[in-house]
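Aggregate trends can hide what the representation actually does to any particular protein. The sequence in question and its structure tokens are set out directly beneath this paragraph.
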Amino acid sequence: MASNTATMGNLPSGTSVCTTIPDILYIPELIFGGLVWILVACTYVVPHNPQAWVMFVSVFCFLLTFIWLVVFACGSHNNRGIWAAADFAYHGIAAMLYLSASVHLAKVTLDKNNPATATDSRNYKLDISAVVFSYTATLLYFVHTILSAIRWKSF
């Protein structure tokens, strides 16, 4: 009988991707990353450059996480040690990218709260939600990085 906490030295394939640690985090990463993407795309923001960086990071990480999930689900990872190292590296890079995007998004959102600039309440609330989801995605990627590092070291 398969356990929900498969041994850290094994890379899952098939449907076990959605039941093993740390790979169960793929689904929340996709959900929260998609929410950041949607919420930032819904708002009108005057400083476009920081928001463009947030959009790039959220779309890039969403697509690569989805591709990574499909690779693991299809069982296309033959050399397990290299794939475990690549999983660790990808999630570490994604965590750093999301952290930088979250800081930019929080700065833009705080600047929009300035009473001197008249902002509508709807966009401000959407940006606050995007900041919360962005930091949540950052935390998920960071936890996945730590658990992937533990799994990689067990090979």
